Amino acid sequence: MAGAVGLRTLGFAKVTATPRADHFQQWLDAGFAADMEWMHRGTEVRLDPTARFASARTAIVFAVEHHHVRPPRPSGRVGRVARYAWGRDYHNLIGKRLKRLRRDLRAEGVESWGGVDTAPIMERVWAQAAGIGFTGKNSVQFIPGRTSWMFLAVLFVDVPVEPDPPLFKDHCGTCSRCLVGCPTDAFAGPRQLDSRLCISYWTIEASALPPEPLRTRFGDWVFGCDVCQEVCPHNTDPPPADEDDFGPRHAWLDLDELLQTPDEALMERFIGTPLRRPKAHGLKRNALIVLANLGDPGGAESAELALQHSHPMVREAAEWCLRRLAV
Length: 327
What we know:
- The protein is an alpha+beta fold.
- The protein has two domains: 3-80 and 89-157, no CATH class; 177-325, no CATH class.
- It contains 13 helices and eleven strands.
- It has helices spanning 21-29, 43-47, 90-107, 123-129, 177-181, 199-205, 212-215, 227-230, 255-260, 263-269, 279-294, 300-306, 312-325; strands at residues 9-14, 58-65, 78-81, 112-115, 134-135, 141-142, 150-157, 187-189, 192-193, 221-223, 252-254.
- It has a four-stranded antiparallel β-sheet, sandwiched between helices. It has a three-stranded mixed β-sheet with strand order 10-3-11. A two-stranded antiparallel sheet has the order 5-6.
- It is globular.
- It starts with 8 loop residues before the first strand and ends with a helix.
């Protein structure tokens, strides 16, 4: 039934209080969520899914792979985009598949609740409990020796299903490539990602301009960052994804175009993709940081245009960018 709607990789776990939930609470208490206040909401449900769906008996965890080869760097002043955001928004695509599956299950008398990265569910822990994968030192989920380039979804159902063997074993060993390779040293330790230092947080979730010492370490990442996955041995030879919707349509973004396109038109261009998440002023902030890091004086014209932007953060980023380009 799940395969019929495009959800082919799955595992089952018995519903209990969320395994190892204390690690998440410790992460929050350490301040590693930065200003992502939504991470603090729905705590009761994160810790125990029966607080939201009392009749839950089984967790079904789905993995949808999205790896595609990054195309060559195009000419001009461009910024790099994290792989997950190259194509369609996975929330929409996988969410629709879950909706169809829930409808089919309901027709069979099975009730369910779940989501794709937006509900208060600790997807990675449930993926481990269902034998789908393990959490690496970079806090990303891996299918051992295969890939971390995947999305996770969880559906809780009210019928018992034979659980799969859990995968809580550490498959990282002594390797620390992800921790060492992070451009901004965002890991306080294994599986301790400090969002306050993370490029993905600052280019996608943050509403402010990152601290000046961090900006120069962003390199050419204009949206997200993949370094901690790219250096991982488990991703040495990932299988190609069979999901064309996640193909490299937006693997690179033209910085001048981002800065010169009116906000409304920019958001219109990225409808149906994750690139709308930081809004137009966030994308322009990111573009200005990368433009400064590229050090190409030819980008000054686009930066000067940003000095007239309505958002003060964009204007501040433009001033900093122009100072950098003048060095």
